[in-house]
Structures are given as C-alpha cells and as structure tokens.
From TrEMBL:
<dbReference type="Pfam" id="PF04542">
    <property type="entry name" value="Sigma70_r2"/>
</dbReference>
<feature type="domain" description="RNA polymerase sigma-70 region 2">
    <location>
        <begin position="10"/>
        <end position="75"/>
    </location>
</feature>
<keyword id="KW-0238">DNA-binding</keyword>
<dbReference type="GO" id="GO:0003677">
    <property type="term" value="F:DNA binding"/>
</dbReference>
<dbReference type="InterPro" id="IPR014284">
    <property type="entry name" value="RNA_pol_sigma-70_dom"/>
</dbReference>
<protein>
    <submittedName>
        <fullName>RNA polymerase sigma factor</fullName>
    </submittedName>
</protein>
<dbReference type="GO" id="GO:0006352">
    <property type="term" value="P:DNA-templated transcription initiation"/>
</dbReference>
<dbReference type="InterPro" id="IPR013249">
    <property type="entry name" value="RNA_pol_sigma70_r4_t2"/>
</dbReference>
<dbReference type="InterPro" id="IPR013325">
    <property type="entry name" value="RNA_pol_sigma_r2"/>
</dbReference>
<dbReference type="Pfam" id="PF08281">
    <property type="entry name" value="Sigma70_r4_2"/>
</dbReference>
<keyword id="KW-0804">Transcription</keyword>
<dbReference type="InterPro" id="IPR036388">
    <property type="entry name" value="WH-like_DNA-bd_sf"/>
</dbReference>
<dbReference type="InterPro" id="IPR039425">
    <property type="entry name" value="RNA_pol_sigma-70-like"/>
</dbReference>
<dbReference type="InterPro" id="IPR007627">
    <property type="entry name" value="RNA_pol_sigma70_r2"/>
</dbReference>
<keyword id="KW-0805">Transcription regulation</keyword>
<comment type="similarity">
    <text>Belongs to the sigma-70 factor family. ECF subfamily.</text>
</comment>
<keyword id="KW-0731">Sigma factor</keyword>
Length: 161
C-alpha cells in the first residue's frame, strides 16, 4: 500500500468508520480516538496491508479496538456509573427510538456489530463477513437473531406502555 492509497483510504472511509464506532460506543471523543488508533495501526502496518482490502482491515481494527476499550472500561468505575444511570432511567421511555436504542444495547456484541453494519451502514453480508471474520451464513444468522430479539423486545415494551 502506498502513501497515496493510505490518504485515499482516509478520505473514503473515515466518516463511515467514525459513524460505526460512534453508534456502538455513543461517545464522540472515544469514537474519534478509536478511529485515530485504527488509522495509526494501518499506518504502522501500511506495507503489509493490501490496498484492495484496506476497508475490511480498518473496520476490523476499529471493531477490535472498540471491544478492547469496552472491556477495559467494564473493569473500571465506568461500569458502576452505567449501572446507576440505567437504574435511574429504567422504564422511562418517551419514544420508539429510545426503546429501539435500549434494545440494540442489550444485544450480544457480535449481533449488535453485524446488525449495525447491515442496517445502519448498509454493508453487504459478504463485506460484513470479511470485517468480522465470519462466513455469510453466520452473518445472516446473527442478523436474524438480533432482529428477532428486537422484535420481541419492542413488542414487550409496547404492552408495557
């Protein structure tokens, strides 16, 4: 991969990568840091990355960096603050968007990632499979399970409301 191909990757994928990370982590500054870390890792490994697979490399790297960050924060005080915040807002939903966001947050990490890549970012099953190191049928199964969970969760919430 050349420097110009690297610069082109920055131009082409930085916005999508940022939206993907932000949708999962919901913190602008942390999302920016993760995107920056992903491009830094790409720069350090620029000679070994094929220019045709840079998109997959970036999203995979961002996803793994995101997971590492989440796991690290779970071991810190952050997890205690989240639990307190969740308890204070429990069952105080004002609209469907909040309910859907709560449901998406309850999905397992892999289901949430493939669902966000497919439904929010519009990637194909094949592209998602490359990014997550899954085959297409596994991606379809994760998306199906996520949608079934969302449907049942939202249905339960509507009966409560």
């Amino acid at each position: 991969m050349t420097v110009s191909e690297y610069n082109e990757a920055v131009d082409l994928y930085s916005d999508r990568l940022y939206r993907f990370v932000l949708k999962t982590i919901k913190d602008m500054h942390k999302a920016e840091d993760i995107v920056q870390d992903s491009y830094e890792k790409l720069w350090k490994n620029v000679e070994n990355v094929d220019a045709t697979k840079v998109k997959s490399y970036l999203f995979t790297t961002a996803y793994h960096t995101l997971i590492d960050r989440i796991r690290k924060e779970k071991r810190s005080v952050f997890s205690e603050e989240m639990n307190l915040r969740e308890k204070s807002h429990e069952n105080n939903y004002s609209d469907l968007k909040e309910i859907l966001q709560e449901a998406v947050n309850r999905l397992p990490e892999m289901q949430r990632m493939v669902l966000l890549l497919r439904d929010y970012e519009g990637y194909s099953y094949k592209e998602i499979g490359e990014m997550a190191h899954l085959n297409e049928s596994q991606v379809k199964v994760y998306i199906y399970r996520a949608r079934v969970f969302l449907k049942s969760y939202i249905g339960k919430m509507e009966t409560v409301l």
